[in-house]
Amino acid sequence: MSSNEPAVSLDRATGTSATNGPRMMRGAKLVALYVLAIAVALALSALLIAVTGGPWRKVFTALIDGSIRKPGRWGDTLAESAPLLIVALGAIVSTRAGLVNIGQEGQLAVGAATATYVATQGSGPFVLVLALLAGVVGGAVWAGIAALLRYWRKVPEVITTLLLVFIASQGTGYLLTRTFLLLDDDPNKPNRVQTSAQLDADTRIGFIRIFGNAFPWSVVLAVVLAVLVSVLLSRSTWGFRLTVLGRNPRTAQRIGVPVVLAGASALMLSGAFAGLAGATMLAAGTANFRYTPGFANNVGWEGLLVALVARNRPLACIPVALVFGALRTGSGFLAATGVERSIVDVVRSLLVLALLVPPAVAAIQRRRVSPPPAPVSTDEPVVAVAR
Amino acid sequence: MIASAASAVGDVLSSEAMYQSAMRFAIVLAFAAVGEWIAERAGTLNISIEAMMIGGAYSSAVAWGAFDNVPLALLIGVLMGVVVSLVQAHLSHQLSIDQFVVGLTLNLFVLGLALFLDSRWEAVTSVVKPTKVPLLHDLPLVGEALFGQPWPMYLIVPVVPMAWWLVFRTRWGLEVRSVGDNPQSADVSGIHVNRRRREAIMVAGGCAGLGGGVLVLGQISIAGYEGGHVGLKGIIAIAAVIFGGWTLRGTLIGCVLFGYFFALQQTLPVLGYRINAQLAASLPYIVALLVTAVFATRTRQPRALAQPFVRGLT
Amino acid sequence: MEGAGAVALAPAVRLTGVTKRYGPVVACAGVDLELLPGEVHGILGENGAGKSTLMKILIGLVQPDEGTVELGGREVVIHDPQTAAELGIGMVHQHLSLVEALTVWENVLLGDASKFDRSAARRQVMETAEHYGLEIDPDRRVGELSAGLRQRVELIKCLRRDPKILILDEPTSVLTPAESEQLFTTLRDVVAAEQRAVALVSHKLAEILHATDRITIMRQGRVAERSRTVEATAPALAKAMVGRDVSLRTNAAAFGAIDLIDQGDPADQAVRAERDEAEAAVVAADRAARPVVLSIDRARLMRDGVTLLDDLSIEVRAGEIVGVAGVEGNGQRELGDLLSSLVTLDGGSVSVNGTTARTGRAGCMADLGIGVIPEDRHDSGCVLDMSVAENLVLDRIGSTARMGLIDRKRMRARAVELMREFDIQAAGPDAPFGSLSGGNQQRVVLARELGHRPTVLVAAQPTRGLDVGAIEYMSNRLRAAAESGIAVLLISTELEEILALSSRIVVLSRGRVIGELDRREATSERLGLLLGGVGIDESTGASA
């Protein structure tokens, strides 16, 4: 990939041999590309560990031990995967509407914080439900700020959602400095660290115990949501109209999809999912049933990556979320190898980068063999990020 | 209450340290923002400017620790910024992968990588001594800010006019502006659209890498490099470009404005004002959000911003 | 010296056996072509005949699979437009190659390899402009110029590079008749005085006959016929172009041939006049009796301080076709957008059968029963990466659903029904819309918009980019729609199309109706004058 080559050179380099090639060949090629990409990403990770003097074999063994092999670990992996999956589903909704929401990390934090506030006001299953709803609202409102700026002031949502991540993490940190907000006012609290009060035992999400593993009911909730989102996006009129909006907003406006209303609600729905993920994390004991600084702990970012790798298909998110959840639990076992936990961040993003390439290459090949597009009578771009 | 607020404003406005700190932040932002401005003029909303900055900051810090040579460290920072930009450019403008997807992943990747490598090769975060321009730096209030900065900060002085000259006074710049505004027309005119866009991203990478290096080596009052974080300064640089309405002058004004609020967070406690640390830290981001919202619609953005170009597709 | 006589001259460019395939589609099949210096060479063909691909090969935008290109007897490979420019090939593109945000001189400079020097460039622009009588202000931003002036910039951009070969792709589509005439005068000059070779690509018989020395006719990717212009006749050209005998009269819109008929054989003219008279009498008597369906009343639209629609009032009665004529960029697009619910008016109103629309609300016009065939179907008429079936039910998705869930079977059944009725050629209802040919895409849009019996049908440039068969089909459908009682508003920049279909014609200029004619009173000359008034106005607006 020399920088001096024109964009078309890729097309030219592959020549005409693939023209009209059977579809199966192309499918097989794609699979091979995927395998190759994953292998390259893993090899690069191993190399990285090796050059920094780490035992790369042990690292991979530890990851597997920590995620599934050791007793009780796969339950933890399921528990870690659930919020990733919920965040990813939300990301898919906004992407479907043609919006780029990359602020899930902040929406999750705000959702968790509002859920904490509600959950610590009382106790019992009813409060739990209210707390989860509060998480939904919190995340939606936080994304709603970006929606407002997008449609009222035309600021690209890419930037606002990102800025709101930072504001959310600092802002929820501030909530933990005031007892009338979130700070635990129990004088006997364990340490001086700013944390919220703990959720009462009956305000927590129940656990399913099976084969010596335990995972919260939110795992089931996440899977149900995945199925629901999948059906609604592919089968419902709502999903259809959202798709039209995402692919051609002007056509959507003409056929009666209110662009602003539908777009803003999709963005807010996307935030609502992230907020819900935060609330379930809180009530499933991610941080010992308390809200703490740094609560989101990259779950928002990673959930977003899940959606990217799953190429915005809700059901495909399930296995991807499991893999990403496994990386999270597996990283807990890295201490013994003496390699920094953050190697997992590198492995994950390398995997994501590598997985972006095969479908892109396939798309270029497809484009090359297809006939020229029908004449178009305008030079105007159809969609702009902000006009 | 009002009186105390007024006196706080007075104190801040008469504080030499405040100006110095604000200028320093503004300059660091400006390196990245100038690069981002060029990338956006070519049609890429380049969110991996953050990754390019982190790459530059980390590698500069390590290189300085290893070689104890400031120019060399800065050069390595620039190179690392370009390396990151090469990945962005080729994935988004050769393989046509969504630029935001690439940018986001790259941000997380480079941040993770810097954090990981930092555990092995710790980045040094001491600073270059300020260069005091004789006489001028004794000017009241702004003397230290303008004429008493560490020398790498002054690299912004050639960088800004060079960027302007590049964009408005060279054929390359003309072509960059054309691919950002109407890539279809540029293409039939014989411009390599994606090649120009890739080059613009690389320029952005170089500028951001330099900005990262200057951040690490030139910040005096805080350790600019906190375990790999440049604290989303790249994103603030993007906000500055939007705020500035895709003009160079407006972008620089945005940098000064945001730099001021970064400085406020540091200077207020020094001046004896108690302000909640979290709120102070989020101040620049809130301001960035507000001012881009206020100014965004009044300005003219490149018409093809964030739109991929594939020949034959409109 | 007239080029037609200079047979002995070596060709400036010679294409031999040029072939280009896109998958199974053959765009050019073994085409031979010679362009002689000092000649205007007309390249005539329908849309999709391969003439555009051929020109793109010459300009380096497309690489041929087979065949050779020779320039001045030397074989060359043209990788890209820059190579083409270096070899002395310049092209005036149909959808211009200008960047709106840049100034005239910057645009002229764009894409060549000369030194970047502002004052030299400005001087050159002014010199070139003066030399060819194409007056222009080099410091104006191109975005501020009218379509006619933009094409002037495009021409200057080409000529400044002193091309040996100049290609013009459908150059008159954005020009008034007067501007077209001026363009041809310039071309004559370029050819006769400077011995350049000019290729004029067009689908309009009249201008090919009027402005060329030699004609190559393409059909289905092959050369169908070659002739000297002096020996050519309109019916023969039309036949060669379409491959069968066609009536110029019924296909006037496709061939740009109204003028030919007007000047043509007196018998035909008499018949025509007689028929028109009879038709018009019936229509006129009928019209008064019919109710006004669509009423646009003093519509006013401003954007960034520019008035786009200026107290625009149009009424359309049931069963009539009202043609909106005008040079491109005079409010047609905004009128189409208005009726597509895409813009909010700053004043005035739109009503259908007395019900006033809340302009700008999503779907407001569709709710009133206004169907639209948009000017650019890719812009607001379809979703490219959805299936044909989905595109056919786009606005009626609710009717194929139960309890909010889409019934795919029902959707497909409805789609198949429409595909049959409108003769849409596709692999099936699930084929991606983007895989269809332009004509079939347009039929999908037409089928959807007519499928649920609209009260009003707006057709904006409905035949642009279609071949003769498709144009004929579209014209018949529009006539049938009107006959069935639908009020039809036809917005077109092709005078011939307007004249061939409309019963009443309004002329649009700068977002304003500047004239209204009954079909009986309208001749292409009269319309041309109305439009031309605008053109003259604007050309003086270009200060040096």
Strand content of chain A: under 5%
What's the β-strand tally of chain A?
Answer: 2
- By CATH, the architecture of the largest domain in chain A is named Orthogonal Bundle
Poorly predicted residue ranges of chain A:
1-20, 371-387
**What do the pLDDT scores of chain C average to?**
84
Q: Which spans of chain C have pLDDT < 50 for at least 5 consecutive residues?
A: 1-7, 534-544
Largest sheet of chain C: 6 strands, mixed
CATH topology of the largest domain in chain A: ABC transporter involved in vitamin B12 uptake, BtuC
How would you characterize this protein structure?
The complex is a heterotrimer of chains A (387), B (314) and C (544). Helix content of chain A is 64%, strand content 2%. Chain A has a two-stranded antiparallel sheet. Chain A is mainly α and 387 residues long. Chain A starts with 8 loop residues before the first helix and ends in an 18-residue tail after the last helix. In chain A, 55% of the residues are buried. Chain A folds into two domains: 8-54 and 340-368, no CATH class; 73-338, Orthogonal Bundle (ABC transporter involved in vitamin B12 uptake, BtuC), CATH 1.10.3470. Chain B has helices at residues 2-13, 16-41, 49-67, 70-93, 99-120, 143-147, 156-168, 171-181, 183-188, 193-218, 233-243, 248-270, 277-295. Chain C folds into two domains: 35-61 and 77-262, P-loop containing nucleotide triphosphate hydrolases (Rossmann fold, 3-Layer(aba) Sandwich); 275-382 and 453-541, Rossmann fold, CATH 3.40.50.300. Chain C contains 20 helices and 22 strands. In chain C, strand 7 (165-169), helix 6 and strand 8 (197-202) form a beta-alpha-beta unit. The longest helix of chain C is centred in the middle third of the chain and has 24 residues, at 266-289. At the A-B interface, helix 6, helix 7, helix 12 and helix 14 of A face helix 4, helix 5, helix 10, helix 11 and helix 13 of B.
